[in-house]
Backbone:
């Protein structure tokens, strides 16, 4: 049985560590691929040797070179990739960002914690997402 695959598109090392920490709590075997921006993510997705077909893409909005919204536009125009489930992860609670992402057919929107130094103020939205939504998606794909 092939392991389910996750593509993490994130440029912030602390956020990458946070996501990896949350994913380790899944207790499900999975394959994780990472890209630091939309351009790198598209290269991974279009690489015929890699044959990457992730069950889920976790996508940051604010990244250099190609941000999350730009990536989503290209993804949704690509016949081979437009079906992929994409969850936005961002510190932005701007309505415009959310509306733009929802218009492009995202599966969900996760607000990242703004404060890494004070864990008492930190939201556990990533852990909750991983345990309640991502677990189900990955198990169904197995």
Residues:
């Amino acid at each position: 049985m092939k392991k389910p695959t996750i593509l993490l598109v994130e440029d912030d090392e602390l956020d990458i560590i946070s996501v990896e920490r949350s994913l380790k709590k899944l207790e499900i075997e999975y394959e994780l691929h990472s890209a630091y921006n939309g351009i790198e993510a598209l290269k991974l997705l279009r690489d015929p040797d890699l044959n990457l077909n992730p069950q889920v893409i976790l996508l940051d909005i604010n990244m250099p070179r190609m941000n999350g919204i730009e990536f989503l536009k290209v993804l949704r125009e690509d016949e081979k990739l437009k079906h992929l489930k994409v969850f936005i992860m961002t510190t932005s609670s701007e309505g415009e960002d959310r509306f733009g992402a929802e218009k492009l057919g995202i599966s969900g929107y996760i607000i990242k914690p703004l404060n890494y130094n004070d864990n008492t103020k930190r939201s556990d939205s990533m852990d909750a997402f991983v345990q309640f939504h991502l677990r189900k998606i990955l198990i169904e794909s197995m």
Notes: The radius of gyration is 14 Å. The longest strand covers residues 5-9.
